[in-house]
Specification:
single chain; about 290 residues; alpha/beta; three-stranded antiparallel β-sheet; 9 helices; 9 strands; binds adenosine monophosphate
Length: about 290
């Protein structure tokens, strides 16, 4: 495995004859990330190249968010990448990515996420998707992949990235992968390391609420208000501060009032455990 910190070092030489897959991360790697990397290997095969990027992107963090305290664990991350069969790790500096040590240059061209970027995560985290899409586009430019893999854990992100590659004709295949969870159901996240033991326990109310909604949908409940009440109960019982809990169309993320066979749905949640903001989501399917 090769670690490159400079994007110019990525030019050509390390590529095998096959396809190139990229997995983009902010580091503090856990098994959810490792599974994306292993899947990337399966997608491109042995003669393909798997590139992982590790970059804590300042422009997707809002003022007062956790950019400064975000865990940075490069040595451990390299061990995870190696174990997951990664060929090349790209870990550039903010200055290299943006030409400015703090993020966007004042004259920088950036990517407008459109209306999908104004709802849910975008409503709570103004500017988040502009920063995220811009860095995804840049990292694609640097790594020139055939395919890029992203987790469904960040469901809206995945949909917005699919829209980016479609609308800007990037010619990169986007593959979404299921959320990897701890054995008790909590979605793996680098931010879980912030949680106190008590908050770690209360955080289970997110997945529990979503699973309750999922089970009710499976049992035939189609009324979205009823489903939302079920999920909300799990969160309020655990005294978690809810940011949003919504049932949306899987692709357009438009609100739904009832589940129908012709419009697959997704339940999405964001909530605060103390100062830590966590997100999760599940598919809702009928009987
Ligand atoms: P992050 O480092 O949090 O920006 O995540 C990098 C990539 O890993 C994104 O595509 C995430 O959706 C994905 N990811 C993060 N957590 C998980 C998880 N628990 N299961 C699957 N994918 C994940």
């Amino acid at each position: 495995m090769m670690l490159v910190t400079s994007t110019s070092a990525l030019d050509g030489a390390e590529r095998g004859p096959g396809r190139v897959a990229v997995v983009m991360t902010m580091g503090a790697l856990h098994d959810g990330h490792a599974e994306l990397m292993r899947s990337a290997r399966r997608v491109v095969g042995d003669d393909g190249t798997v590139i992982a990027t590790i970059f804590v992107n300042p422009t997707q963090f809002g003022v007062g968010e956790d950019f400064d305290r975000y865990p940075r664990t490069l040595d451990d991350d390299l061990v995870v990448c190696e174990g997951a069969g990664v060929d090349v790790v790209l870990s550039p500096t903010v200055l290299e990515v943006y030409g400015d040590a703090n993020g966007f240059r004042p004259d920088a061209i950036t990517i407008d996420p459109g209306p999908l970027g104004d709802i849910l995560e975008g409503a709570s985290r103004r500017g988040h998707f502009r920063g995220m899409l811009t860095v995804v586009h840049k990292l694609m430019g640097m790594t020139d992949p055939d395919v890029a893999l992203f987790g469904e854990k960040d469901y809206q992100q995945l949909q917005v990235i699919k829209a980016l590659t479609r609308d800007l004709e990037l010619g990169v295949e986007i593959v979404g992968m299921p959320t990897i969870r701890e054995t008790d159901g909590l979605a793996m996240s680098s931010r879980n390391t912030y949680l106190s033991p008590e908050d770690r326990q209360r955080a289970l109310s997110l997945s529990k609420g979503l699973f309750a909604m999922q089970a009710a949908a499976k049992a035939g409940e189609v009324n979205v208000s009823t489903l939302l009440a079920l999920g909300t109960k799990s969160l309020t019982d655990a005294q978690v501060k809810l940011d949003y809990l919504e049932v949306r169309d899987v692709e357009t993320l438009e609100p739904l009032t009832s589940l129908t066979k012709d419009r697959p749905a997704r339940a999405l949640v964001a909530a605060f455990l103390g100062t830590t903001r966590l997100i999760d989501n599940v598919a809702l399917t009928g009987p």
